[in-house]
Specification:
homodimer, about 450 residues, alpha/beta, FAD/NAD(P)-binding domain, 2 domains, 5-stranded parallel sheet, 12 helices, globular
Amino acid sequence: MNSGKPKIVIVGGGFGGIELAKKLRKKAVEVVILDKHNYHTFQPLLYQVATGGLEADSIAFPIRKIFKGQKNLTFRVTEVQKVIPQENKLLTTIGEITYDYLVIATGSTSNFFGQDEIQENAMPMKSIPEALNLRSLILQHLEAALIAPTPAAEAELLNFVIVGGGPTGVETAGAIAELKKHVLKNDYPELDIQKVNIYLIEGSPELLGPMSKQSQEKSQKFLEELGVTIYTSARVQSYDGSLLTLADGRTIHAKTVIWSAGVKGVVLNGLDPTCTVRGNRLKVDKTNKVDCYDNVYAIGDVAAMLSDETPNGHPGVAPVAIQQGKLLAENILNKIEGKPTSHFKYFDKGSMATVGRNRAVVDINKIHFQGVFAWFTWMFVHLMTLVGFRNKLVVFVNWVWSYFSYDRGTRLIIRPFLKKADIIKLNDKYRSSETQEGVS
Amino acid sequence: MNSGKPKIVIVGGGFGGIELAKKLRKKAVEVVILDKHNYHTFQPLLYQVATGGLEADSIAFPIRKIFKGQKNLTFRVTEVQKVIPQENKLLTTIGEITYDYLVIATGSTSNFFGQDEIQENAMPMKSIPEALNLRSLILQHLEAALIAPTPAAEAELLNFVIVGGGPTGVETAGAIAELKKHVLKNDYPELDIQKVNIYLIEGSPELLGPMSKQSQEKSQKFLEELGVTIYTSARVQSYDGSLLTLADGRTIHAKTVIWSAGVKGVVLNGLDPTCTVRGNRLKVDKTNKVDCYDNVYAIGDVAAMLSDETPNGHPGVAPVAIQQGKLLAENILNKIEGKPTSHFKYFDKGSMATVGRNRAVVDINKIHFQGVFAWFTWMFVHLMTLVGFRNKLVVFVNWVWSYFSYDRGTRLIIRPFLKKADIIKLNDKYRSSETQEGVS
């Protein structure tokens, strides 16, 4: 691994890290990409894994396969424990790794805003293991409801709360509502399906904050048509695993609370804390260089490029990460060759969210449309963005099949739900063992 | 659940239990089916899940969906802790369940023949969680090999041993050999692929014991063409997790040992031990009634119907379980109505095994054929037997795609490998919790 060429180490195989590494193909640099998983995750479809619509393997792609034949690249499954920027060095679970340029593309994780009790009891959905754990939990709660000893215990098991009315929250609420409508009534004939309630809780007055007024209203209407109860301008005060209390005093008894109310950057240990801004993101300049260092960059969700046009940075979506990764490849190569670097400018292709069958909302610049055509647009864009032909094909087959059968294929409790405390314990145990990997 | 009709409780949603319950549709009985998973597993393809060829969800099928609309049936996810035959009662993790007729269709599990050290260190492959755990282990060992500190440590990680030369062992060895040939050389360009060794160890002088001489020889030839080292007439003496020792003193250093050398029945606690014969199976008469009881039956792998024609009982394959389940439905109904019952006679449709791409062996009565046509026959029969149209479709798409791309889709470490001791610990913990389920 010592070629004498400048060595670029990328931490994270998400949209940004992958794009950057691909653009460095056949360039006179040595590339090392690190990820704690051996696969890339297509995060926009995680909610379909959690709600039984897709198999986990369909939205994940082996990182090694992405870089097949890329001779200047090394991939390692590992976790970074610490950066030592003064020595241009990473400490990882597989030993020390030095770098000339470090790119932090670690993405984001659920933000519980310091509320430990909520963090312990609400379900995140930011990774494939988390989505599968949630799928198991939902199905186990339905099974448990059948044998609940009291009506109160049954109600708790059949109330599903989604916190956060962004695209993930809206899509998840819609998917659970469709599960209820099309699948549960057949699967659980003993169950009074009317007892299944889905709540969507959003802090601001509207769902889908950054989208057009039209899309906001329409998505709310779509969700209500599907029977979702929406609380806007509502904040979660506490959740103890059974009782969720809102700031205004209203309560919901629910065993399942899905948390999509916010994210925070995954920052590496060892970095100067003054480089970190709100949302645990790294403050970067317009070339994505982290402010405190000369040779450390951050792209995607973990980067905060604050400027007059983007006072809060860019939205945490795949196109930002991809475009930043692409430009950073050019900029690092230019910097190595002593050429001028260029500034990042986000090209916003629009945004969209799907609520359910034939129900989606799309904003492209000034054009807004909703309904069936929006839904097909949503499916087409997501299919095209999925990595790998096999994945495209399998997801397409699943969607077509679901469309005509009104069914979901994968409502299986393959690995039962594990509590967070147990996942953390196992992670710690296995991290120190020879297999070098954690559980989640 | 108290209809006054005779209540038939079936423990196990495998091939036998499912077939029996289906045949009781619209009959004047109450049917309860219990399984610790909420899905039926298509066991013949587990090895493809373990070796990255198929997604787990494609070979599993929700049990609730199988019985959609079957009004006289109740399904529960639970584990039976004990039978109390004197009181016609089961103790389960969800409480007591009474029966008029009990059918034990619990199948089989890996048999380590009392060798605790081997049991602790070798990998079984009899359930979906086990197959996924094995997939993670294989992939983690490849990752670890890249950073192995010494050539000896590397060799241990790259030696794969399969113990048992029945269909599962032959198919697994072939699948790993093809993984090496078509996938690893692209995925791990840093690795000297010649260092990956696959061993198949069989106690008797021939592979595929019950098949024709021609199939035995041809499958051995196919495996050797794929680079598998075969040791016949070889018995494993010990395996400590790194060093495997054969009875004749030969040794193999290997971190991965897959155990397909034998199975034993999964017998419920509380049954008279004198009803159990070799292989931990329940001795049944020709109507599948367990010898010691009047209203307890066993079908499939857990049943031993010993007679002059079948001194060792029937082979542990799906067709036996299905045919027994089908006949038992008739026999129980006849018994209830006071009509005569009939004796089981196995209709052997033949047997087959696949070694790899274009390489399979098929015996149908006196007809034996091998190679490409056998391979297509194998695929066709397995596709047709898979439960559910979506599963057929997704498996078909995966196979066609693999055929043309020489690739495997799902080599992802979705949930990293867990040691058996940890799985048992978690199982015990969660079994006693409200979610009523274990980890494996």
